[in-house]
Amino acid sequence: MTATALVRRPGAFATAGVLRTVDHKDIGILYVLLGIAFLAIGGLEALLLRVQLATPGEHVLDPSTYDQVFTMHGITMIFLVAIPMLIGFANYVVPLQIGAEDVAFPRLNALSFWLTLFGGVLLYLSFVAGGAPDAGWFAYAPLTEPAHAVGSGMDWYIFGLAVSGAGSIIGAINLAVTILLMRCPGMVMGRAPMFTWMVLITSVLIIAAYPILTSALVMLLVDRQLGGRFFDPAGGGNATLWQHLFWSFGHPEVYIVVLPAFGMISEIIPVFSGKPLFGYRFVAASGIAIGFLSFGVWAHHMFAVGLGDAENAFFSATSMLIAVPTGVKVFNWLATMWRGRIRLAMPMVFAIGFIATFVIGGLTGVSLAVVPIDLYTTDSYYVVGHLHYVLFGGTMMAVFAGLYYWFPKVTGRLLGHGLGLVHFWLTLVGLTLAFLPMHLLGIEGMPRRVWTYPPGMGWDLPNLVSTIGSFLIAAGAIALTVNVWRSIRTGERAGDDPWDAFTLEWSTPSPPPSYNFDAVPRVRGTRPLWDRKHPDRLDPV
Amino acid sequence: MSAQANALPFTRDRNLVGIALFIGSESLFFLSVVIAFVVFREQGLATAKAQLDIGRTALFSVLLFASSGTMGLAAGRRSRAWLGLTALLGAAFLAGQGLEYARLLGAGLRPGSEMFGTTFFTLTGLHAVHVLVGLVLLATLFAASSARPSRVGQTAWEGIAMYWHFVDAVWVVVFAVVYVGTALG
Amino acid sequence: MASSLEPIVVLSLVVGAIAAVIFAGVLVALIVFTVRYRDVRTGSATQIHGHRGLEIAWTAAPLALLAIIFALSLVTLGQIGQGATFGSLEPPLHVDVIGHQWWFEFRYAGGAVTANELHIPVGIPIELDLSSADVIHDLWVPELGAKSDVVPGQRNVMRLFTARAGTFSGECAEFCGLEHAWMRVLVVAEPRAVFDRWLAAQSAPASGAAGRGLEVVRSAVCSSCHVVQGQVAGTPIGPDLTHVGSRTTIAGGVLANTADALRAWIGDPQRYKPGALMPRVPLSSADLDAVVAYLESLK
Lengths: 541, 185, 299
Ligand code: HEA
Ligand code: HEA
Ligand code: CUA
Ligand SMILES: [Cu+2]
Fold this sequence. Notes:
By secondary structure, chain B is mainly α. Chain B is built from six helices and no strands. In chain B, 82% of the residues lie in helices and 0% in strands. The relative contact order of chain B is 0.16. The chains are: A mainly alpha, B mainly alpha, C alpha+beta. The interface between A and C is large, with 84 and 78 residues.
């Protein structure tokens, strides 16, 4: 069962071949397909939220349904869309980029995919088994304690996240070992492609952060099923302990879902600017710095909890510091474009869009790191605006860029440019309309996670605009779907190297054979293909 | 096989590196449960002082610590005898835990009865589950190396030894925090 | 200072301006590079690999900017944080705030208790002592600036201030379950004399009209959850009704406090606030009218 057959004939899913495949390319594709399926589900949930919030006093959803839908939307997008998409890309691309024939543990790789899928299924089973989780994606205790969450929703949350989390940990160990030990001759870490670098850092973050979530889930389970008291203040427990544990995981988590995106952008911008990545070593090092810092900022989600001014100031400082290495990346991308020869193919269009929208999200993030500003904006729609600018304007825009970039490698065919532009503009305009007004709503005092709101607060128009924007994003998603559909059937043939790219995955056929390379590649610099194509102008070593 | 240009200095074995990363992940898991124990330590101290059998648990702990030594010998020599002894020591430790649990449950302590019950049973219970998994691994290794000694690679011995040492090391911390900490007051 | 919001606004404007400049810079560079270096010429670009000086510059410059922002934020924190006086010399007025699913209880020193309606005097600091009866809530009055979580098992203190009289709308900001949306409050800031008169009236026991209404509230299930000080010795599970007639809204802002609305609410709370912890109490139409008349008389 090859990767191509999988994409060309969706019917092949039914065959046992897919169920038993352990090829990293097949697993990668399965991951991305899983992410797309859940994107449709999470997206439809988002549209439901937006319909309910379009006007004040709407009754499309009742409060109980609304709470389940916004909770499942957040969980789905983070754990079943962003993570699988990025791990999927990593699975497909990393072994090719480092000249390996597969990942270190192909069977474990398949296991981690199936665990992720199973975790997702568990989460969604809750809908038919007495109600989905309804306490938000970070599920603050004591709202989740048995006294306040009577149904089984929170138990599904615990098991769903624990199972899919186990899948992520196994997947991350696999990717980390692959990158550490299976690079082809000559590829010291200092020459590894930037996407590979960022996947390595993300993997380490997953290995370190997910167990903290698992431990918190176990404690919650003890509380719920064995009468434990960890998070129950009435029984001597501590409501904020959950928050500390959750965000010790949760903040690294948000960098887990953005570092690989940074990696994709760091691949695409150089290729389409016809120049090497500006400041390779600084871009890699800033990734490491972000990784370390991400474990020291968690309490910026807790400024209003009452930790004390000194503690708040500390976490404010560390949070602001993260802007520095992130800025280093942004500036290096811009410098890569500077004096380049820029080709505006779809991957590059999305990469440019990514920079513009991500920087907005990053800057609002810095404003939230300023304690007095956060004390005003926290738990308001301003935060919802921030998180969508970084997650949609950041991660998802990069995922789209990566999709247009690597699709030809996976299928052997190019995605259409015209439909691509339709997708891009609908997405960019849609996300601006959907998420920019949210900042205004927050400033005007609208709290997040409300199933409805009173009229006359100045919230009506921004909400309506936001709803319209969300439907434009969905229209964009449909344009993408049509594009993919058409390309798989009748798309232009891509050849091995349609983008005149730099890294090893473009030196093998599209789609690559199951063993990836005919001969083990050897590399001498960061851009093996450039060196091969320009023997007269080799990169300095 | 793709040649590896620059493996890590300590080892080239991908299985062992993978296990090392897994153990790193598990360490953070236990660290956060230990932190939760410490957060509520004050609240549970009186019960802990009254109920825990520190002497006997110390004795059984010594057995577990010794099993790390025997596991080292077993892995170094691929010795089934040492492996068997390791498993026996591990099982003895679990039995000791069982006695402690039986006594505490007999005295009415439950995960839900008071804060000390919650933290004590969660922390030691999670460790015991890991010991149990370790015992299963030891048994599997024993069986496999009895049937076809040559088919069991050195990696399997070393990997399982790493895990066993880890389970042991966790108990060093748990014993220090739960028992020694209680004794010191 | 006009209010406890003011320092936050000032800081936000500074940070917002810095952010706007940075964003504009990035956007301009992005657009200019895209247009200027668009692939029109032939041949390939000069291969530039990096520049150490630039790297240092764009590490140092943001660091400096952030240091400034951080320092300013500490100043602001001093102006609004624990023990802030907002330039007033008078001691703060204390109010105990208790979060319930899904309403706020305000308790004043003299014994006055209200629900979802906080009256404060202008010109002096207000110190709110926040605690929760169940889950985590969060009290936020946007026009007065900062918010604070209301955490069970923990007492948080928040200081607010306004020099301007007016009615400000606020709410619970931390998700706290089904009716988090309808956990709204009104803050009425009034001149000291008016406030004092209000507080005196609220501290007095109830003087509602005796009659059928009082009888029903006293005997029916109502008293298993509500107290009317001086008239109904109930269990204080729901809002204190001693002066319910004086409030602007009921049930966390779902309804205006009119006779019709009261009748509708008591007749079927779940219809207006699905999930609210007040059950539907079957009362005959006449009894309902009597209860409403009684509650209305609790000024
Ligand atoms: C992809 C995910 C992602 C990313 C990358 C970020 C990035 C950042 N986030 Fe965000 N954040 C979330 C996802 C993310 N966040 C989510 C999901 C939540 C909400 C969770 C919930 O409550 O549900 C959240 C919430 C959140 C809060 C808590 C808000 C609250 O609930 O009260 C805070 C507070 O400090 C914060 C800060 C930051 C900061 C400082 C960054 C920085 O890393 C940003 C750095 C980037 C830049 C600054 C732009 C580029 C830099 C330059 C151009 C250099 C020059 C810049 C300066 C000198 C300022 N975030
Ligand atoms: C990657 C993360 C991600 C993404 C992509 C999104 C995408 C969107 N989100 Fe989400 N959101 C979160 C992460 C994300 N969100 C998180 C973490 C929260 C916090 C949850 C919490 O508070 O606990 C949140 C909360 C949140 C809220 C706040 C709820 C509340 O506080 O009450 C709202 C409200 O409008 C919202 C809206 C949207 C919209 C309109 C989109 C749109 O971009 C979606 C557009 C739709 C699509 C992209 C799907 C289109 C597909 C189809 C129409 C089917 C086509 C068919 C095929 C493709 C086969 N989101
Ligand atoms: Cu109380 Cu939200
Ligand atoms: Cu964060």
